[in-house]
Design brief:
Length: 391
C-alpha cells in the first residue's frame, strides 16, 4: 500500500541551507533561511531566555502532562503584550498554547472549518505554508494580490476581495512584517480594514509571527488591536519563535475572541478537541521559558531590549538597501520603507541561480530575501552582484 505514495518535493529553503553549508567561498551570503541573524551571522539564544531556562532546570517541579491547552500561564502572560488595551473583556478572549505559529495557524483554520468556513481569502504571495495548510484542510483558497509594484499594499484588491466575501469565508491577514513581501498596511489602512471587517460576514484570522521586528512591539500590534476593537469574532495565530528566538522549541499561541464568554468557551473546547487529535499537547519547554521571562520585570526588560536591538539592525540594513537606489533592473528604494525580515526582489529563477553560482548569494527561488542576512560588510557586494545579474 505505501508504495503507492508519490515522491514529494523537499522543502526548498531547507535544501538551500544544505547548499549554502557546502559552499566554501568565504564571502558567501545567506539570504535564504528565515531566522534573524546578528551582524556576525549568528542566531543566538536571547540572554533572558538563557536565564529563564536555567531557572526552569533548577526549579521546575515536574514534567507531568499539562492538557491540550498547554501552559496557560504563558498564554495569559502574552495577552497584554499582544492585545494591550484592545483585549476583549468578560471572558470574550481566551487562548491556548500551540506548537509554534504554524500550529496556531493550523488550529485557527481547522476551527474556522469546523464552524462552517469553506474558503480562505488571502493576499498573495504569502508564507508558503499558509496555502499548504489551507489545501491540507481541503479549504478553497481565494487569492488577491497583496502588494503594488511601488511597494505599497494593494488596498483595491483587498477591498474587492472583501466586498465579494460571504458567509463561509475567512480572511487571513498578516498582523505585521508581511512574509514574504515586507509590505504592511499603514495604521490608516488598518483602520479602514477594521471598519470593512466589522460589516463583513468574513471571519477575521490574523497571523502575528514577527511582533517587535517591524516598528516595535506596540506599533506592530496596531492592526490586530484595531480589528479587535471593531470586530467581535477574531482568531489570532501568534508565534514567539522569532521575537523570543525560540524557533526549534516551537512556541506559539492561538487566541479566539467572540461576542460573549459562552461562545468563546465553546470555541476553545472545540480547539482543544482539535489539538488533542493533532498533537495532544504542545511542547512545554519554550512556552515555559517565555512565561518565566514575562513574569519577571527584569527578564522582560532584557528581552525587550534585545528584541529592540534586532529591530534596529533590520531597520539599518533596510535603510542602507533603500539608499542604494537601483541595482541593475531592481528598484531597492521600497525596501527602505518596508517592514520586518523579508522582501521580494523582482528576479527570475535564472537570476536567482546566477546569483548563487557566480556570486555565492543564496536566496529563495521566489526572489525572497531575508534582509537580516545582510551586514554593513557584505551589503555592497550584494548590491553589486544584484546589479550585475539584473543589469
Ligand atoms: N506565519 C508566518 C507569516 C510565518 O512567516 C511563520 C514562520 N516562518 C509562521 C507563521 C510560523 O512560525 P513558527 O516557526 O512559529 O511555526
Amino acid at each position: 500500500m505505501l508504495n503507492r505514495l508519490e515522491q514529494q518535493a523537499p522543502d526548498a529553503l531547507l535544501a538551500l541551507i544544505k547548499l549554502f553549508k557546502a559552499d566554501d567561498r568565504p564571502d558567501k551570503i545567506d539570504l535564504g533561511v528565515g531566522v534573524y541573524k546578528t551582524a556576525d551571522g549568528a542566531t543566538p539564544v536571547f540572554a533572558a531566555i538563557k536565564q529563564a531556562e536555567a531557572r526552569l532546570v533548577a526549579e521546575q517541579p515536574s514534567k507531568a502532562y499539562l492538557g491540550p491547552e498547554g501552559d496557560m500561564g504563558f498564554v495569559g502572560a502574552l495577552i497584554p503584550h499582544v492585545f494591550g488595551n484592545a483585549a476583549p473583556e468578560g471572558g470574550r478572549l481566551d487562548g491556548m498554547q500551540t506548537p509554534g505559529g504554524t500550529g496556531a495557524v493550523r488550529l485557527a483554520l481547522a476551527l474556522a472549518k469546523k464552524a462552517g468556513v469553506t474558503r480562505v481569502i488571502m493576499g498573495t504571495p504569502s508564507w508558503p505554508n499558509h496555502a499548504q495548510i489551507v489545501s491540507d484542510l481541503e479549504l478553497e483558497l481565494v487569492g488577491f494580490s497583496h502588494a503594488n509594484p511601488d511597494g505599497s499594499a494593494n488596498m483595491d484588491a483587498l477591498r474587492a476581495a472583501l466586498a465579494s466575501a460571504g458567509t463561509g469565508d475567512a480572511i487571513l491577514l498578516h498582523g505585521c512584517c508581511h512574509n514574504p513581501t515586507g509590505v504592511d498596511y499603514t495604521d490608516a489602512e488598518w483602520d479602514e480594514i477594521a471598519g470593512i471587517l466589522a460589516a463583513s460576514p468574513a471571519l477575521a484570522v490574523i497571523d502575528v509571527a514577527y511582533q517587535g521586528l517591524g516598528d516595535g512591539m506596540e506599533a506592530d500590534a496596531y492592526g490586530l488591536r484595531a480589528v479587535m476593537t471593531c470586530v467581535e469574532e477574531v482568531l489570532v495565530a501568534y508565534s514567539c519563535d522569532k521575537n523570543f528566538g525560540l524557533y526549534r522549541d516551537r512556541v506559539g499561541a492561538f487566541y479566539v475572541a467572540t461576542g460573549d464568554g459562552d461562545a468563546t468557551a465553546r470555541a476553545i473546547s472545540n480547539a482543544a478537541a482539535l489539538a488533542r487529535a493533532n498533537w495532544s499537547m504542545p511542547p512545554d519547554h519554550g512556552g515555559a521559558a517565555v512565561r518565566v521571562v514575562l513574569e519577571d520585570d527584569g527578564l522582560t526588560a532584557s528581552w525587550l531590549e534585545e528584541l529592540e536591538s534586532m529591530r534596529i539592525r533590520i531597520g539599518q540594513v533596510r535603510a542602507q538597501l533603500g539608499a542604494a537606489g537601483t541595482a541593475g533592473g531592481v528598484d531597492l528604494e521600497p525596501l527602505g520603507r518596508q517592514k520586518g525580515m523579508f522582501a521580494m526582489l523582482p528576479v527570475s529563477k535564472e537570476q536567482v541561480q546566477q546569483l548563487r553560482s557566480d556570486h555565492a548569494v543564496y536566496m529563495a527561488g521566489s526572489g525572497r530575501i531575508n534582509v537580516a542576512g545582510l551586514t554593513t560588510d557584505n551589503i555592497d557586494k550584494f548590491v553589486a552582484a544584484l546589479a550585475e545579474v539584473t543589469g
